[in-house]
Structure formats: C-alpha cells, structure tokens
Amino acid sequence: MKITLNSPLDMHLHLRDGDMLKLTAPLSADFAGAVIMPNLVPPVTTPAAMQAYDARIAAALDGADFTRYMTLFFTPLGEKELIAAKEAPGFFGFKLYPAGITTNSEGGVSDMAQADKTLRLMEEMGIPLLVHGESHGFVMDREQEFLAVYRHLATKYPKLKLSMEHITTAEAVRLLDEFPNICATVTLQHLIITLDDVAGGALRPHLFCKPIAKRPEDRDALLRAALEGHPRLMFGSDSAPHPRCKKEACGCAAGVFTGPVALPKLAEIFAAHGALENLQAFVSGNACQWYGLQPVQKTVTLEDTPMSVPASYRSYGEQVVPMYAGESIGWSIVR
Ligand code: DOR
Ligand code: ZN
C-alpha cells in the first residue's frame, strides 16, 4: 500500500538553536513546512529576533524546501508593535504560554487580563493566537482546567484565530465541537500513548511531555477525531528534542522527539484504521483551509514497508533519542 501526500505541514514544531537546530531541522524536512515555536532562551519576542532565527533555520536546512511559519512569544503589545510583527516576512502568529508552565516559558502570561488589549487588536488584524492551554493545577487536570480560558477567549474575541495547541483530552475535543471559531493541534504521541505508557511500568522519560499523556478514553477521542478528518483538528507534532543527557536524568526535561518518525507513523495509524483518505486533510488540508495557507508544492510518498528507527540521532556533538528508538515502524517514506 502507498499514499502520496501533498505538502504535509507540521503545525507545531520545536527546532531549538545552535547545534541542536543543525541536527533536528533536516529531520523534519520531509514536511513542506512547519509552525516554528519561539521558546528559545531567551524567547523570540521581536520581529528582528524572529527573522534572525528564521535565517539560522534556513541555514540548518541546507537548501531543503521547507517553509517556516514563524511565531513570536506572546507578550502584551501595542498596535505599532503588532503591525511590525504582521509585516515581518515569515511571521505566522503568537504563541501564548502561561508563565512557567513548560520549557522556557517563565516570561509567559501570568494574568490573562493583561493580554486583553493585545488580543482585541490581534482579532481585528487577523493575527493567529496559538495557546499552550494548561493551568497550574494538578498535572492530570491542567488542560481541563484551562478549557474555561478557551471558552472565555472564544466568546470574548469571536473572530480571533484561536488554536488550542497539543490537545490531550476528550473534553478538549468536545470544546472544539462546541466552538466553530476554535481550531486545535494534536501530536503524534497523544494519538497513541496514555499515562500508562509513560509511568505505568518502568518510567519512560522519552515519552514524558507537557501536557502529560492522559487516559485511554482521552487518547481514543483524539484518535477518533483525527481519523474522521475533523476539519478543525490539525497535526502539530510538538516534536521537542532535548539532549539525551537531559532526558535520561533526574529532572527529565519535557518533550517527545517525533520529527523523523511522524509521517510514517501517521500513515501506519491511518492505514490500520482504514482512514488513509483522511490523512491529507489532517496533515495539510485542514490547516490550509483554516489559515488560508498556500504551502510550497512538495509531495511525500509513504509505503507499508518498515522503517528501522535509529537508537538515537547524533551529529554536531548533540545526541537526541526519537520516539520508537531502536524499534521498527510499519510504514516508511519512499526515497
Ligand atoms: O513537552 C513539551 N516540550 N511541552 C511543551 O510545551 C514544550 C516542549 C519543549 O519546548 O520542550
Ligand atoms: Zn510545543
């Protein structure tokens, strides 16, 4: 069996910087493009920093045709600053982190009321807002507790292009159905694993991410929505590489590195459920429709011959362990 995808997009990707960027950028380059996260140290908060980062990504890609939909780390901004952002080449939208909720998010928003004016302007200007939607509550309840904030935003700013990033719960899928003015991304791992896979037996640090994987019924609801081709659910890998030594450590960093396995594994899952015809929408069509994107023309053919996933990827002095490290997955990219 084979499928050819047109211009697949990863709507949520961490590429990091420096040597890690050089290692990871080419490993996502089978996609036609990706929404690039701004949580560097320090975070990317200005158009100048964003464009400089984009240039470093372009260099790391070494000529690969891969569009960077760049994001800025949300901070309260006035109209002039928003205009400058919107006019900056490559700019896609703002990523809002509640302060301290995940990797390098200390400078995020601690009180949503402080964001009000900026959000109103973004709504008027058609600038997308991508949100890491977790409260500071009990780890399993964080997303669910944050849903009230999404409701509030979707009601108060009905025309704001609002995305619930990396949803992990059945309740978030229900919210997506309730509010036609919201979209969402979902990762590869949250379609597959539950908390049991992370911590039910021996602890598996390479599956530890934020938001944490939830219950089987949550995973099943996410998978169902993806397989059905829910028109406002998009693939966003949240591929989040950390050096191996930071994952296999006391105080394991959050993030699952899925960039190099995402497309083959998605094809395997969709094929196993007889839903291959909806994969194009999930990895490209829905995002293009929602955001009005016209990605570069690029096709990727996948087939049901196994891919051996390396135990780790190493170069430039960095080492990072992917999901399915050392295992075989059922589908691969035709080179
Ligand atoms: O697991 C995660 N890793 N979740 C995030 O929100 C951030 C990401 C990272 O940057 O490592
Ligand atoms: Zn992320």
Topology (elements, then pairings):
Layout (H helix, E strand, L loop, with lengths): L1 E5 L2 E5 L4 H7 L8 E4 L10 H15 L5 E7 L5 H9 L3 E6 L19 H10 L3 E3 L10 H15 L5 E3 L5 H9 L3 E5 L2 H4 L2 H6 L15 H12 L5 E3 L8 H4 L14 H11 L6 H13 L7 E5 L3 E2 L4 E3 L2 E3 L7 E2 L2 E2 L2
Parallel strand pairs: 2-3, 3-4, 4-5, 5-6, 6-7, 7-8, 8-9
Antiparallel strand pairs: 1-10, 10-15, 11-14, 12-13
Helix pairs in contact: 1-2, 3-4
Bound molecules: (4S)-2,6-dioxohexahydropyrimidine-4-carboxylic acid (DOR) and zinc ion.
**Unreliable residue runs:** none
Number of strands: 15
N→C terminal distance: 15 Å
The fold-level CATH name is TIM Barrel
Q: Please state the structural category.
A: alpha/beta
What ions, cofactors and ligands are bound? (4S)-2,6-dioxohexahydropyrimidine-4-carboxylic acid, zinc ion
The helix tally amounts to 12
- The H/E string reads EEHEHEHEHEHEHEHHHEHHHEEEEEE
CATH class reads: Alpha Beta
Please state roughly what percent of the residues sit in beta strands, choosing from under 5%, 5-15%, 15-25%, 25-35%, 35-45% or over 45%.
Answer: 15-25%
Name the quaternary structure: single chain
CATH architecture: Alpha-Beta Barrel
Shape: globular
CATH superfamily: Metal-dependent hydrolases
Strand order of the largest sheet: 2-3-4-5-6-7-8-9
Helical content class: 25-40%
Mean pLDDT: 98
> Biggest sheet: strands, sense, closure?
8 strands, parallel
Number of domains: 1
Rg, alpha carbons: 18 Å
